[in-house]
Structures are given as C-alpha cells and as structure tokens.
Amino acid sequence: MEQLKTIGRELAMGSQGGGWTGQSKEFLDLVKSIGEARSKAEEDRIILREIESLRRRIAEPDVPRRRMKEYIIRLVYAEMLGHDASFGYIHAVKMTHDDSLSLKRTGYLAVTLFLSDDHDLIILIVNTIQKDLRSDNYLIVCAALVAACKLINEETIPAVLPQVVDLLAHPKEAVRKKAVMALHRFYQRSPASVSHLISNFRKRLCDNDPGVMGATLCPLFDLITADVNSYKDLVISFVSILKQVTERRLPKVYDYHQMPAPFIQIKLLKILALLGSGDKQASGHIYNVLGDLFRKCESSSNIGNAVLYECICCVSSIHPNAKLLDAAAESTSKFLKSDSHNLKYMGIDALGRLIKINPDIAEEHQLAVIDCLEDPDDTLKRKTFELLYKMTKSTNVEVIVDRMIDYMISINDNHYKTEIASRCVELAEQFAPSNQWFIQTMNKVFAHAGDLVNVRVAHNLMRLIAEGFGEDDEGADSQLRSSAVNSYLRILGEPKLPSLFLQVICWVLGEYGISDGKYSASYIIGKLCDVTEAHLCNDTVKAYAISAIMKICAFEIAAGRKVEMLPECQSLIDELSASHSTDLQQRAYELQASLCLDSQTVEIVMPLDASCEDIEVDRNLSFLNSFVQQSIEKGARPYIPESERSSMFSVSNYKSHYQHEASSHTLRFEAYELPKPAPTPATPQISVSTRITDLVPVPEMTYYTENNQASKLPPVSDASSADHGIKLHLDGVQKKWGRPTYSSSSSTSSSSEKKINGVTHLDGVSLQSRGTSYDSKGQQSEVSAEKQKLAASLFGASAGKTEKKPTSTQRAPKANTATAERPGVTGAVSPEISKQKAASSPSPDLLDLGEPITATTTTIDPFEQLEGLIGPTPGTSTLDNSVTTSEQKAPDLMALYTDTPPSSSSSIGSASGDIHSADKNLQMAKNVPAIKKGPNPQDSLQKDATARHVGVTPTGNNPNLFRDLLG
Amino acid sequence: MGIRFVLLVNKQGQTRLAQYYAEHLTLDERRALEGEIVRKCLARTEQQCSFVEHRNYKIVYRRYASLFFLVGVDNDENELAILEFIHLFVETMDRHFGNVCELDIMFHLEKAHFMLEEMVMNGCIVETSKSNILTPIQLMDKAS
Lengths: 967, 144
Hints:
The complex is a heterodimer of chains A (967) and B (144).
Chain A: H1 2-16, H2 25-36, H3 40-58, H4 65-80, H5 89-95, H6 101-114, H7 122-133, H8 138-151, H9 157-167, H10 173-189, H11 199-205, H12 210-226, H13 235-246, H14 262-276, H15 280-296, H16 302-317, H17 322-337, H18 341-354, H19 366-373, H20 378-390, H21 397-410, H22 414-431, H23 435-449, H24 455-467, H25 474-491, H26 499-512, H27 521-534, H28 539-558, H29 567-577, H30 582-595, H31 599-605, H32 625-633, H33 642-645, H34 651-664, H35 684-693, H36 702-710, H37 715-726, H38 742-746, H39 751-778, H40 785-802, H41 806-821, H42 826-840, H43 854-858, H44 862-870, H45 877-897, H46 906-911, H47 913-918, H48 938-949
Helix pairs in contact in A: 1-48, 3-4, 4-6, 5-6, 6-8, 7-8, 7-9, 8-10, 9-10, 10-12, 11-12, 12-14, 13-14, 13-15, 14-16, 15-16, 15-17, 16-17, 16-18, 17-18, 17-45, 18-20, 19-20, 19-40, 21-22, 21-23, 22-23, 23-25, 24-26, 25-26, 26-28, 27-28, 28-30, 28-31, 29-30, 39-40, 39-41, 40-41, 41-42, 41-44
Chain B: E1 3-10, E2 15-20, H1 27-42, E3 51-54, E4 57-64, E5 67-73, H2 79-97, H3 102-107, H4 109-119, E6 120-121, E7 124-125, H5 130-143
Antiparallel strand pairs in B: 1-2, 1-5, 3-4, 4-5, 6-7
Keywords (chain A): Golgi apparatus, Membrane, Protein transport, Transport
Function (chain A): Subunit of novel type of clathrin- or non-clathrin-associated protein coat involved in targeting proteins from the trans-Golgi network (TGN) to the endosomal-lysosomal system.
Subcellular location (chain A): Endomembrane system
C-alpha cells in the first residue's frame, strides 16, 4: 500500500516536471545532510566539504547547463549558511547570459544574493540587463527588471534608465509594475537621477491594472513623505481608489480572507494619513471613507484588524473628527480587551496615538494598560512603557519613572537601556516633583546606565545641585547639597561606577563636600583619592578628582585652617605631575601652586561656591594694560590689530570669507590667518563652571509639538511652553520645573492659574497615593488592590485633573475600588459618582475640533467605562457588546497563531481525523482555517513516503522535518 | 523601506531562506544578525505576541510547524499586516507545492525566492494576488 502511494506520487511529480526527482542524487544528499545536521558545527562541516567539492567541479570544462544551475543553487546554500562562496560568483554571472529563462533567472537570483551593488562584477551584468530589457519574452524582461532593482547602483542608472522608462508603457502589466518599482529603486538610490521622471508615477497611478496601481503606491508614499505639499491634489484620487477597493470593485484575485485588497487599503491609509496631517481641507475629503471602513472592517479576522489599526493611525494623524475618534477609540478598546497579545500590542500602540489628541481616552483602559505593563512578555511591556512615557505628567511621574528604572535595571539589552535611561532623565527633568526625588532618580539612572546616557545629563545634574531651589531659600539649597554629598559618599562604596557618574560625584564633593561641616577635609580628600585608585578611572575622572581636591584645599586655606597633605594625596599629585596628559599635569601643578598661596589670594583664585556666578570675560584684557605699558617702555614693539596688519581683509571680511570657504570646501590659496587669541581659563574651576552655564537645550518632546499643531493652543501657554522647553527652568516656577503638564497646557486656563495648579498638584499627589494605599489594603476585590493602586497613581490623578478640587481627586480611586468590589451595587453608586463628576468638572474643551461635537469625546465618564470592564451595567450597552464580541472572536484569532490544536477546532479536527491516526507526526499539525486549498492532506503522506524513498528520513533530532506547514 | 529582510529558520535555528532588502550585509554581519534574532524569537512562547523589537526595527514572526518565518520591518510598519503577509506567502507556496513543507522549500529554494521576488520589491509589498505571483513561475516551469 505504502509503495503504491509512493509510485503514484512519483508519477504525479514526473508529469509536473517539478518534483524532487529532477535533481541529482548529490543535491538530494546535500539537502538531506543539511536537514539532518544536529548542530551548527556539523552543518559547517558539511558545507565546507561541499565548498571543496564545488570549487573543483564548477571549474571543470563543459559542465552541462542544468548541472551548473544546481551548482549555483548549492553555492547559494553555502552563502546562506554563512560560508564564503566567492569563487563561484563569476559562474553565477555567466549563468545570467543563458538563453533558458529558468537558468537565467536562477543566475540573476544568485547574483543578487551574492553581490552588493558596488561589487566589481556588477559592471559585467549591466550589459546583460540592458540586453534582456530589450527581450521579446516578457518574462525575461521581468527577470532583468528584478535584477536591476537589486544591482544597479548610482553610476549605472543612466545605462538602463531610458529602457526602464520605455517599459512603463509595456503592454504586459507585470512588466509595467516592475518598471515602476525599478524607477522607485533608482529614486531611492539617487533622487536626482530620476527627478525629471517623477510624473510617471502619477501616470501609473491611473493604470488599468490594479497590480500596477498598487505597486505605484510604494514610490508615491516615499515621494509624499519627502514632500507632502506637492501631492495634495491627489487626495481625492486616493480617496476614490480606496472607496473603489472597499466597494469590492477590484478583481477577486486580490481578495485576502474575504477582505478586498487589504494590503492596498493599508498603503492608501498610510498615504492619506500623511496628506491629511494638519490639513483640515484634505482631511475633510477623507472622513467619509474612513467612516465606511470603520463600519465595514471585520474585527474577527486578523487582516480586518490590521486595516482597522491603520484606520486608527490615520484618524489620529489627520485633522481630528469627533465621530471618527469615537470609532477609533472603540476599536482600540476592542484591541485592548482581546485575549490575543498581538491585538493588545496594537491596542497599546493605538492608544498612544489617540491620547495625543484626547488624553482622557487612556483612563477607560487603566486596568488593561496595567495588565500589559505587568505582562511577562517583554515586547508588550516595552510598548506599554512607550505609552506611559507619552502620558506622563507631574502627577504620575514618580510612579512611571520608578517603574521604568526598575525595568531598566532588569534588562541587558544596551540599545533599549540607553533609550529608556534617556527617557527617564527627560521625564525627571520635566516633571520632577522635588529636587530630592530628582537627585535620587538621577543616582539610580547613573548607577545603572551611567555610561549610556548623554554627557549633557551629567552637566544638568551638577547645575541643579549648584543652583538648587533658587536664591531665596538658602536652607533648602544646603539641605539638598548635603543630601547629595551624603548619598554620593555612600554610593562611592560600590565597587564599580560609570565614569560619568564619578565625574558628577567628584565635582559635587569638591564643591560641597565640606560645606556643611559634617565631614572633614581630609576625609573627603581621602575619598577622592580612593576614587582615582579604586575605580580604574579614566583621565577625565582623574581631572575632576584632582580639581575637587584643589577646591577643598583652597577652601581650607581660605578658612584659615592648615591643610595637612595625606600621603595618598601626595602620591596622586606626584603621579599626575608626570602624567602623559598635559591637562592632568597642569591641574596637578596648579594644586601644588595653590597650596603655597596665602589665604587671601586663594580666596580670590578659588572663591567658595562660585560655580553659579556668571563669569564676565574682559575681552579687552584691560588688567594687562600696565604690563603692556611696561613692556613697551622696555622697547617691545606695540601690538598692531589684526585688521590693520593685512590690507587684504577686514575682520568681517575674513569671517564671511571663512564661512564661504567652509560651505564650498574649495581649496584656498591665501596663507592662513594667525590664530585668534582665545581667552584661556585661569583655573580649571572656571572652565568647569563655564561649561555648566552653557547648558545644552533640552530637546522638545516630539509628541508635544505635534499636539501643538493638532490642537489650537492659547498663545499664552504656547509661549510659556516654548520658554520651558529651552532649558531646565529653575528660577521662575518654584518646586516645579519643566513646562506645564499636558492637559493643563491644552486647557484654556491662564498661565497664572497653572502655576497654582502645579503646586497644589504636588501635595495632592502624595496625599492621594498614600490615601489609596490605605483604602485598597482593606478591600480585596476581584481586581487586585495592587493594580488598583497603580491604576490610581497612573491615571487617577488625571481623572481629577479636569476637576479643580484636589479633594475629589482623592475620592476618585476610592470610588473605583468600591464599584469594583460590589458589582451588584454599581447601578446605585455610579450615577451618584457621575453626577458628582458632571457637577464638578468644567466643560473640558481640550480639543478645538472646529465642529460643535466636543461633548461626545470628552465627557466619557471614566467610572462608567470602568464598570464596563468589571461587570455589565445597563447603561453601557456598547461596551458590553464589545466585550462579548471580543470573547467570541478570541478563539478564532488564537487559532490562527497557535500551533497546537485549540479545543474549539472540531471542524478541522474532523476533516483530518483519519490522518491523525495514520500519521503520528500530525498530532501537532497546524490548523489554519479557511486555507485548506492545497490538495488532499494525503499528499503530504505521500510526500513523506517519497522523501523516505529518496533517502531522506526524519531523525529523532528533527522529527518535524516533514510536517506540513499548513493544515 | 518597510521590509528589511525575510528569514526562514527552522526550530533548530538553521536558516532555510534569507533575503535582505535594506542593505547588503557581509557574511559575518548576516551570521551575527541571524544568530541574534533567531535566539530572541525562538525563546518566546506562543502566548507572547508575535513581534519583537530589535535595535531600531521590529521583527514580526510566525511559526508554521517546524518553520519560523521572520520578517524584519521598520518601526512604522503595520505589524498585523506583516503577519498576514507571511501567511499569504505560505498560502502561495502551499498552492504551488501542495501541502508545502520544509523540504519543499529546501529542494526548491530558488522557487521560494522567485515567489518572494514577485511579492516584495525594494522592501515593499507589490503583489498580493496568488495567481499573479505564480503565473510567471508556472510559465517558467513549462518552458524548461
């Protein structure tokens, strides 16, 4: 029986002409041994042996062409598995000359896989491509165009460009499509080379063939990304294409899982999102079709959700429309409530986009967001952190940054560590509730990711410690400083610290180490000496340390105390005086010199706590006048100003010349000017402080600016936010730096009100978070108290944000727990709360949508929404629906991903039941509904048998080798 | 750019097909990259989501029996759509080979590549109709 099947299969393959029997025994053996290799080492051995044999045989004269094709594919294997097969490249190039289409295409394929576009052999292929582009056989033209996309580089574009342009009008749609893509590739390589041909893309958009039109969207997307304004006229065309697609006017072959051309829909939505962004008129054209899409898209299939997600992206990008935002929010909540992690991920991403427009949307999903945050899945967690980052404000910054730091410590991925560290710093700088907290947070970030953060961060920290709360509160300043000193002395005990952090520590210890009298000078000096020895520190840290020692010595001398030189300090000075670094040498000598000075001189050279003083540079160097006078009297030549020295250019002339030169990079033939005298800093201390005063501006957060564009902000808050964006703002607003929080800036309250808000918030937060912890401790409900607490600290505050009374802010989380705990009473409780809220909340005009519809989006009652999460109530019917539908759909979605047959898959199970008994392997077979298009599953059995027949047997190591990929 | 690479790897981590769109990588770079991302993806459970962030791009992956399909995409790409693109690729191979399995791809590596060439150009999805994808390949089979 088994044998009969085998024969049948072989016969079938023979008639197809494409079975495994077409290949040589050697090739089958190679594939078999690679398939059975148990380890990478074994695989490497097989390939190395293969390469040796190929090297010999490929160079033999008169290799038959079919055999050569096989050799080339074996070379592809060798390279794919990581071994160099460059000896065979030339044979692949030769194969592109072959007349047979199959061989030619294999040759092109191998060449595109082997060669980068700057390889020497490319020049040999350009000629072949040119010839093939002229071929009568359209398949050969297609093969050449595909190769051109990969191989033609900037220099060779002109060689094929005219032919490619001609092919844009080829009768065959496959050729037109590929010609469009080749032109797209040339545009990517060198936009200038095809700039005169851009109009062709517009023409091809109207191609009769939907495939050509769909492909043309790719170059158009790139072009529109680069320059939106030139393509505004196409909005209507894109919308009408999208409409036609959704109305199923495209041929059936483009359907995917009953969805009409979903990939084209997605591309169109991406383009429309670009075109409609910040353009009310263009957006107006898009609203209609988006509304249709929201209605038509099935959220039961994966591809339907993909299109829905793209719709949400589009809605959040274009000029806001309340109805669409509602639909988008509803889809987002379906995603978030889904059991599928993939949909949750998309939901979190969508939520991050929507809160840019309406921050209140997040509240409804607090528990879902916290679930995602605590999920063991790293991807989901990161996405959630991204969302939290977007919704941080002064009320929840502590919770969010603490979470971020904990996570940062737990991961090893340096790339992401850097990212999350810089986000922590950014948030801490903007929203820190207190200096104390800021310094502790910075300590944590530095200690765990110190070498990954920007130097600017360190300078900001030093500046903050130096400037403190402001001039009026000296007590708090010194308290801050001594707490910084204390924490740093403690941290120095740790074995390994990042260099940047050590620099900060040294600087702070030098400036403030002995200022509160708690530590003696020799203790601090000793610690600083330890720093230079214990931590294999670099020159920069040493420089910071020795400057710090010098400062402490100077302060001691100025205070009239005697400085006793510790032996380790002396040896450090000796070591640095002989250092290879001239900077270190200079600092060491300066220290020695300052030790010999009297107290008055030292006080002038090293003034106490002078890092915040502005340094006035005397550009005229007037203090040198007497010295100059003396020298001239002694017979020195007087100084001739630069401008008078050479009649060729004045200083301004010189400058413009210099700029011109810098931009044009041309050779200059005149002699170089004398270097301009640069004022050298008198002491290292000054150099440090100048650097600090010269703070690099804190970059604006991107979402913020986008928000500015999307919603019209009152000019007052705009101006103040810009002001805050420039640097760490420490003087004007007390206890609260950074710009005003998200919602307060977009609300219409005046800036003075905001300040008060900011201060009261501070108290409100700490009180509130503490209050919740007490509340939730006693009340264990279905949703764990822990999560409730977190939710309250993340979102609760924002609920109170629209209400102006801090007291109601405190009540909010309590109410949450109450409703959660007693689902039966919710009906009674919730109207009360909502009434309360409705009474206390001012009309939240967060958005100026230009249409009288704000009520629908902004007055979503978070408590009522929350009930939807916990228990069904009559008032929230839409939400209930969404819950039930997502529950119904969940198994289907999961079935698409899971490998093991889910319990609800009886329909497919019955179909393949008999095979289950026949083949043990099938117990883990994939089951994917709706794609049982291949032949009877028995074919796979036959294939198994054929495989055994040709000598490939599954091994214990690789039992799944023969398992069918589908069904 | 969209798609940066398409990678087929079996569950032992052996590469079965590799196509790069973003830039030409040297052998060593490819080896390192593949090792890194395959380790990352193979370590994940089935309940976790099918997306992994890696450096400055994302990997969308899907498992079919013993084979993993990994697609590296830029950050602004629609992950769910890429997931379905993978499925479309598998459906297309299934239509051509009939109950496609890992061995089909190994024995017909060049054909799997040809299908991918029809579907993706310059890192963009250009063709999603199975018949349009397979017609040139069937014609080529007939001619030879």
